[in-house]
Amino acid sequence: MSEFPEYVDVSYAEGEGETAADYPALEDKIEKAIEVVTTGLEEYENPAIMWTGGKDSTLTLYFVKEVVEQYGFDLPPTVFIDHYQHFDELLEFVDRWADAWDLEVVFARNEDVGAYVEEHGLEPGDDIEVAELSEHNRHHVREILEYDDETFPFLLDTYVGNHLLKTVALNNTLEERDIDGIISGIRWDEQEARAEETFFSPRHDPDIYPPHDRIQPILQFDESDVWDAFWYYVVPESVEDFPDDGYVPQDYDDLPNGLTHEDIPVSPKYFAGFRSLGSEISTEKSDEEPAWLQDLENTTERAGRAQDKEDLMERLRDLGYM
């Protein structure tokens, strides 16, 4: 494999064969995350941060902000994929914390599909005519996905819908912004399709995506680690009136010192029992308890999402999905 970009000096094998158990303490995981982010900001000329407003990407953003503050790097822009089916609360969360943290947010959208949806007044699940899309989108549907039907539903949880609304939107933005490294908050324990990822993961095939690398600093975290990091590091260091030694809320309204959900960089949907925030249409809460109090070891955080099929995730990953 030829190196891309030529000026980048990273090991694409770093993390190969490892699991979260190789980083036994939370401090070990945090130290590795800081190391990966620091290398990413040093090596890439035009990096960006993938931010969904969810817990994993917000934790990743926190580590980037910490490294930027400590070492004086410029804070990269964040890329938010707007697939037109988000929870309203999530969009409000992104707007609020982008303002609080002075973030540059680049909204990645498949505007061709979005314009078609708006023009025809479509609701999620309604059919989109392939023939009425742009040549670029038709190429992806017919040549890349090898999809033969005349229509596909306006839904994320389908092969075509997910690819056009997320992956094509992301790849278009990577190309338009000339991004050479995207800092992503995926984890080894999420899915089999991500279990073999490394801390620096090449995406160099120009026939599939704009050549770039994935910088993945929280691979070594599991779901409970993410929440521990929030309640003992992210929130205490981000919220002035939060206890310095941390505090774990025990129900939806359990916040200390008169704080409200708007004061906390954790989406209220997690307090309400959601463990994943994929889309308003296809994601349901997992339980009535806040996400961090649920049975994290014996249940999957993506159980509330319709698109939790490993074969689909593997194919989407090969096409450039996160």
Give the tags.
322 residues; alpha/beta; two-stranded antiparallel ribbon; 9 helices; globular
Question: Can you offer a commentary on this structure?
Answer:
This protein is α/β, with parallel strands linked by helices. 36% of the residues lie in helices and 9% in strands. It is built from nine helices and eight strands. The strands form two sheets. The protein has a six-stranded mixed beta sheet with strand order 3-2-1-6-8-7. A two-stranded antiparallel ribbon has the order 4-5.
Layout of helices and strands, plus pairs?
Elements: H1 26-43, E1 47-50, H2 55-71, E2 78-81, H3 88-100, E3 105-108, H4 111-120, E4 127-129, H5 135-144, E5 151-153, H6 159-177, E6 181-183, E7 200-203, E8 212-215, H7 223-238, H8 268-271, H9 310-318
Parallel strand pairs: 1-2, 1-6, 2-3, 6-8
Antiparallel strand pairs: 4-5, 7-8
Entry summary:
The protein is α/β, with parallel strands linked by helices. The protein has 9 helices and 8 strands. The protein has a 6-stranded mixed beta sheet. A two-stranded antiparallel sheet has the order 4-5.
